[in-house]
């Protein structure tokens, strides 16, 4: 079973995404509410995929993405964003995100 790390500063959104991932056949092995914790958990858990918010405390999604990709170029990270962060989503894709999800879904 593929594993996932869910990173979002909103517990409610993390739980929603976790449920979507589990319904899609993933096992969520960790959850983080900020970028610093996400980096630590990524290093410990080595998940197959990371679903991460773009706007977070400590380190935002772009900074966290860069740090994870620096130590693991093969990291598979999908960024979650509202449509108001279009420029940040473009930056995330340039930095190596494999995709993005607009949240909340329409």
Automatic annotation (TrEMBL):
Per its record, what are the GO molecular function terms?
Answer: DNA binding
- Record keywords: DNA-binding, Phosphoprotein
Instruction: Give the matching PROSITE patterns.
Output: RESPONSE_REGULATORY
Domain spans labelled Response regulatory: 3-106
Could you confirm whether the keyword Methyltransferase appears in this record? no
Specify the domain of life of the species encoding this protein: Bacteria
Describe the function of this protein. May play the central regulatory role in sporulation. It may be an element of the effector pathway responsible for the activation of sporulation genes in response to nutritional stress. Spo0A may act in concert with spo0H (a sigma factor) to control the expression of some genes that are critical to the sporulation process.
Q: State the name under which the record lists this protein.
A: Stage 0 sporulation protein A homolog
